Amino acid sequence: MSAPHGRVEGMSAFPEAPFGSADRIEIGAAPLAVVRHAGVTIDDLREAFDRGYAALGGLFTAGTLTPAGPALAVYDGDPMDRFDLELGFPVVEAPSTSLTAADGTVIVASTLPAGPATATTALGPYDGLGDAWRRLVDRTVAAGLAPRGISIEIYVSDPLSDPGPLRTDLLLPVR
After folding, report:
1. What pLDDT sits at residue 22?
2. Mean pLDDT computed over 80-88
3. Are 162 and 90 in a shared domain?
């Protein structure tokens, strides 16, 4: 098991190329438009994702919001139990007030959790993300870093339009 690489100058949370096995990065507080869910479980994710991303897509189509990067999800808490979830997109400008989509979904402003993190890229189906997360956490802890209890998935590939293998970047904020 290799330790995370040294900090890479200028590497952001949204690089063009995939991350290595456990790159050390500094996350900037990018503005987000998100749908918040409190106290959810893994079983709630499909409905939350489908409804939330559809609502955000409607606001993009209407010109109310302008995306500035790929879809993402920020998990706060234990993903094997109950956790809080923000799902959304980085945007050119975060909404100044809450927005209500046509289906009643409420979209609010947020920011990407800033600070040091480790990151890796998972290529392939979403059902492989659990193993990719375990490897990243193991490498992070082996390097003497403490996870903050937040995990971020950035869905670089769009499964509806990208014929290649899915690319998901995993970011683990650390203390």
Report:
1. 96
2. 96
3. no
